[in-house]
Specification:
The protein is of the alpha+beta class and about 200 residues long. It has two domains: about 100 residues, GMP Synthetase, Chain A, domain 3 (2-Layer Sandwich); about 70 residues, SH3 type barrels (Roll), CATH 2.30.30.100. About 20% of the residues lie in helices and about 30% in strands. It contains three helices and eleven strands, in the order ββαββαβαββββββ. The strands form two sheets. Strands 6, 7, 8, 9, 10 and 11 form a six-stranded antiparallel sheet that branches. Strands 1-5-4-3-2 form a five-stranded mixed sheet, covered by helices on one side. A hairpin with an 8-residue loop joins strand 8 and strand 9.
Length: about 200
């Protein structure tokens, strides 16, 4: 038996609520292999499968994302559809744990660390902060991404109330990036020749 829950990226954690500790084990890998074909059939990417133990129950957390060539977020309707389909697959799993489970399906929030090349592709056009290995850290907007690294248009600090200025594009190889994260902003700028041909609904919406 399952209780399938579709969540948006902003619903994944609530302030003050204690989350069960995630258990990454062979069972999670088995479930990933079981669920991945259905996720791919919806033209989605299976970002993660994790099992949280909460007393006598299990919580199966599934994170799905759009393909790396697209920007924006996974819609609520798609999350709801894939949640029902994955729940049916788990209900029919002959090798499942006998304990009841809750299924939670969500998409990554904008606060996800940019730890893989596909994350940088998905963040095209967004403002990011990048910590650089043996170099000056950069804050700016992602202009483009290729197999070797990311090109960022730096944002130059100005006096309060003035329109931000942009510097010359900077190419950062992936092997020189220590860490990166998306900066939350209320609007998206469309300047400096930024790639936006695949823009979809914002994940903050």
């Amino acid at each position: 038996m399952s209780n399938a829950e579709a969540t948006t990226s902003s619903d994944r954690t609530d302030a003050g609520r204690a989350e069960p500790a995630a258990v990454h084990n062979p069972e999670a890998e088995r479930l990933r292999a079981l669920l991945e074909p259905a996720v791919l059939a919806h033209r989605l990417y299976l970002e993660d499968v994790a099992i949280n133990i909460a007393g006598s129950n299990r919580v199966v957390n599934v994170v799905v994302d759009l393909p790396q060539e697209e920007t924006g977020g996974v819609s609520l309707d798609v999350i709801a559809d894939i949640s029902k389909e994955l729940s049916d697959i788990l209900d029919g799993d002959p090798s499942t744990d006998s304990r009841p489970y809750d299924l939670e399906v969500s998409s990554p929030g904008v606060g996800r660390p940019l730890s893989e090349p596909r994350h940088w592709h998905r963040a095209r056009g967004r403002m990011v902060s990048v910590k650089v290995i043996q170099g000056e850290n950069v804050t700016g907007r992602i202009q483009s991404v290729d197999e070797s690294g990311v090109t960022i248009v730096p944002e130059i600090a100005v006096k309060k109330g003035m329109k931000p200025k942009q510097g010359d594009p900077v190419k950062l190889p992936f092997d020189k990036i220590r860490s990166g994260k998306v900066e939350i902003e209320f609007s998206h700028l469309d300047e400096a020749g930024l790639e936006n041909e695949h823009n979809g609904p914002s994940e903050e919406a």
